[in-house]
Design brief:
With 248 residues, this protein is an alpha/beta fold.
């Protein structure tokens, strides 16, 4: 079995790579930082290839797919966020975020889904966020990108179910996680984050059980349930107050 993991140089991606290696998966690890990828590779016992590549570029996604077609499990994990009032945050950073968090996911999901449907087997895990179910004042662009991932994946799941396909798609929707995300997004989470290792192991366990929504942590599952019942105006107000505490 072979898995391709994007955003694999740190955080959840790195932890998922280590968890899958323990299950005997051959790995293709993708990220921009080659030195960090080498470090992750040194921590893994199974056969591992590393690819230093910026997946915000559509042509790079196509190159990656052409190079590695025989993939059993695709983990779309590359992404980052930012925090601040929408009119004050960097437009350049937001465009890079949209290209990474949406366009990269979209292209890789589409290309590998075609292969998997032809073979009638394979699994895609798209890493979204609890934020994908909420309005995101002060992190508007990031939350919107994760909402895209959630809705795209939900639609694909229904298409696969209607065809009785053996291809599986799932979404991982964590809340705060102790990763480098905080530094890149310029935030400090009010709630204590889960460890990357816990999130990865929980995700793999639920993924192999065929679950679609994978939401680690009791408090985060409770928050998602409450968000489904509350009006958007209320969840936006609550989210704003929580985000306000994050700004450094």
């Amino acid at each position: 079995m072979k898995a391709l993991i994007t955003g694999a140089s740190s955080g959840i991606g790195r932890a998922i790579a280590i968890a899958l290696s323990k299950k005997g998966y051959e790995l293709v690890l993708v990220a921009r930082d080659r030195e960090k990828l080498k470090k992750v590779q040194s921590e893994i016992q199974s056969s591992t290839e590393i690819v230093s590549m910026d997946l915000s570029e559509v042509e790079n996604c196509a190159i990656l797919h052409d190079r590695y077609k025989d993939i059993d499990l695709l983990v779309n994990n590359a992404g980052f966020g930012d925090c601040g009032y929408f009119d004050l945050t960097s437009l350049e950073k937001e465009i890079r975020m949209i290209n990474t968090n949406i366009v990269g996911y979209h292209v890789l999901t589409k290309l590998y889904l075609k292969d998997m449907r032809d073979k009638d087997k394979g699994t895609i895990l798209n890493v979204a966020s609890l934020g994908g179910f909420l309005p995101g004042p002060l992190m508007a662009t990031y939350y919107a990108t994760k909402a895209y991932v959630v809705r795209l994946s939900e639609a694909i799941r229904e298409e696969l179910k209607s065809e009785q396909s053996n291809v599986q798609i799932s979404i991982l929707c964590p809340g705060p996680v102790d990763t480098n995300f905080n530094k890149v997004a310029n935030v400090q989470f009010a709630l204590k984050g889960l460890s990357s290792e816990y999130v990865a192991n929980y995700a793999i366990k639920r993924l192999f059980k065929g679950k679609f929504y994978i939401v680690p942590g009791f408090k985060i599952r409770l928050a998602r349930s409450c968000a489904k019942l509350a009006p958007t105006s209320l969840t936006a107000k609550i989210t704003y107050k929580m985000q306000k505490k994050k700004i450094r």
